[in-house]
Amino acid sequence: MLALMLVAATTSWLCPLVTAQPLCRTRTLRTGKVFPVKEKIQGDRLYFSSGKTHLIKHPCNKNLALYLGRQIFLTKDNFESSLIPFSIPSSMQVGTPEVTSAHFAGSVLLLVVNQKVYVYDYEANFWTASTGIEHPVSHVSGDNCCYSGNSFCMIRYLRPTSISQTPEDTDFRSTPRKDVYVQCDENELAVLTRENNLYYGSLGIQSSSLIKFADQNIWSQEAVLMFTDVGMLEILTPLPDMIFPAFDFQKCLLNIQALLMDPQLQAGICKVELLQGEFENKMYTIDMNSQLELTALMIPRPGTLPVPLVMVSNPHSLGLQAVIYEDGYTYNGDTKHRLNISLKQQHHWGRADPNFTSSIKRPTISTITLDIANKEISCVDLKPLTALISVGCDLEKKIVIQNELSACHHGVLDPVALQDNYSYIIEREAYDPNFQGQQAEEDLEVYYPYEKLGCPLLAYYDTPWKPVVELWREGKFQEVVEAEYVLLEMNGLFTYTYSLTAGTAGCSAQPQNWTTITEMAGDTAFFSWDRENYMSCHDPDYHEPLRWPDVPYQILGGPTENKVVFDQRNGIYIFFISIVDPSYSYCHLETTFSVYVYGAFPLSIFPPITIVLLTVATLLSVWLAYMIPQLLHMEQGLEVSGFWARLYQRCRSSCACLWGRC
After folding, report:
1. Where is the CATSPERD/E C-terminal domain positioned along the sequence (predicted)?
2. For residues 186-218, b (16+ Cβ closer than 10 Å) or e, as one string?
């Protein structure tokens, strides 16, 4: 039905009819048949429920395909050999072996058989039944990625639905040309109708063209179409054998480019001799605030001025925009045009309304296609150039904490000692293993991972401090990160706070903190604060009331000058850092680093009033030690001395009587 709609609705013009003439070169594939055999099909023979035949090709492996008709065939060599009809083991107990849908998902084939989903591993020749699907299923579909080498599949299951039947007088066989699967490069279309009419179409960005090859006598109930290359179309028909159980295949090959050279078609001459780009059939990544530069080469036919066009396939809320710049030069007498394409999220061009997209925080997939406007149908070999664009994390990015003047550089710590299984003690009153700021029950011994962290940064305890965060890509420095980020000491140390509170940071809503984040995440992870769950207290769309303006503001960077304030304690801190700004990068930019805090005097074990009393007593003792000897040489001193002597004698006599000696 889709093919007929394209034929009827999207065609910009229709070439004159081609008179009846042989279109294709027919050959029959018959392999492995020398002696008659009595081989039987193992299991239940599958059949396609639709009255029309279909062909499903693997999006990445051009030789792998599934033929769906009254018989079902799975080929691994593009139907270049005879095949036994596809069957499912009887042990699967499928009941009626009726197939309603099929889909290649990486290295497996998904089949809906009798309203249930079955998985066939064609590499291991192994069948399994799907689990977890309780309702009946009619169709299965998904996507594959053929660029990175790792296929991924997103599957959705649909309940059985009634399918409208195509009228008998419009029965057809059709297939789109798919050079890039994410169906973005469908620049060719072929339709075969019951009336023995073959339609060939060229799909462009601005317009589409269609040509009709009439009265060819090539239609059959079992025929399917498939493109083997640009402008190369095959009509495939399975042929049963009266002696052998394996079917042969008849292939009718059509060279569309050669057919279009027929003067009767009046197809016109293609205005472009060459269109090529290094980005064709490749995958690129655009991260937030990043720009992608692509180049292509176009050689026009002399005397023509073709217009290049760039089309970006966008999800409805993505906003990816391309700008093309063209410059020309002459080489070996030919005028060549270099096409420079700049691609960036429209949200970051500064040309879009801030509310243009609602999903800027989520990564997605898009495509970019370069084509020629109003391209003639004769430009069969001049297919559009398409690349896959991953609008998401650039895996080559990472963050590094600047450490130009470390504790080892200043001689505070010895790098040799740090590498020799160095350990240190965290006192129990300074850390909490549950990261709740509560005193632990015992001291903690920590082994310092020098191989991972190197020598710690150096920070003075009495000076507010924050790290300098650098962004690196492919081993090269990019910029100093000014985006918002958070810190957490990995051993549970809580002997530090922040210079700003929620109120002094200018928050209009109650800011998040590590306590609320860990409560929300549960026991899954302590270090779970990232760009996906961060909400800025300065965001007008964040409506959490500001109930406690005096709590520490735990977010660094961004619009505030917040810093870390260390308690009066010397020692090593190992921090986990996470970039939480959702508009900086699609990546989860995280790392760990260490800081050595110095300059703090040891805390006193006595309360301040005790220290004051001890100081006064000491000063008084010193004064008495000086004054008493001086007074003893004066007249008053002699009288005082005599008084104490007489008092001593009396006490001595009284004490002797108490002991019975008087």
Report:
1. 421-636
2. bbbbbbbbeeebbbbbbbbbeebbbbbbeebeb
Write the CA distances from 199 to 4, 255, 302, 552, integer angstroms.
Answer: 10, 14, 31, 71
Cα–Cα distances in Å, from 92 out to 26, 46, 102, 474? 39, 12, 17, 50
In a domain, 603, yes or no: no
Burial class (CB within 10 angstroms; exposed 0-12, middle 13-18, buried 19+) of 45: middle
Dihedral in degrees, nearest 10, Cα atoms 98, 104, 108, 113 = -10
Strands 308-313 and 364-372: antiparallel
Identify the H or E element spanning 27.
strand 25-29
Are residues 326 and 341 both part of a single domain?
Answer: yes
- Phi/psi for 274 (5° steps) reads -150, 135
CA dihedral defined by 337, 339, 340, 346, rounded to 10 degrees? 150
Q: Can you tell me the distance from the alpha carbon of 343 to that of 223, in angstroms, rounded to the nearest whole number?
A: 43
Same domain, 258 and 284: no
pLDDT computed for residue 337 by the predictor: 83
Rounded Cα distance, 125 and 602, in Å: 72
- Mean pLDDT, to the nearest integer, of 538-546? 88
Sign of CA dihedral 561, 567, 573, 575: negative
Domain extent, residue 185, equals: 2-265
Do 29 and 81 touch, CB atoms closer than 8 A? yes
In a domain, 88, yes or no: yes
pLDDT digits (tens, 9 = 90+) for 235-255: 999 999 888 889 999 999 988
Q: Is 343 helix (H, G, I), strand (E, B) or coil?
A: strand
Residue corresponding to tokens 């299991």: 43
In percent, how much of the chain has pLDDT > 90? Answer: 38
Which of 324, 465, 486 has its CA nearest to residue 399? 486
- How far apart, in whole angstroms, are the C-alpha atoms of residue 386 and residue 373? 15
Residue-wise pLDDT for 5-16, tens only, equals 444 434 444 554
Q: How buried is residue 615: exposed, middle or buried, by Cβ count under 10 Å (0-12/13-18/19+)?
A: exposed
pLDDT surpassing 90 at residue 480: yes
Q: Distance between alpha carbon 459 and the CA centroid of its chain, in Å?
A: 36
In the chain, how many domains are there?
4
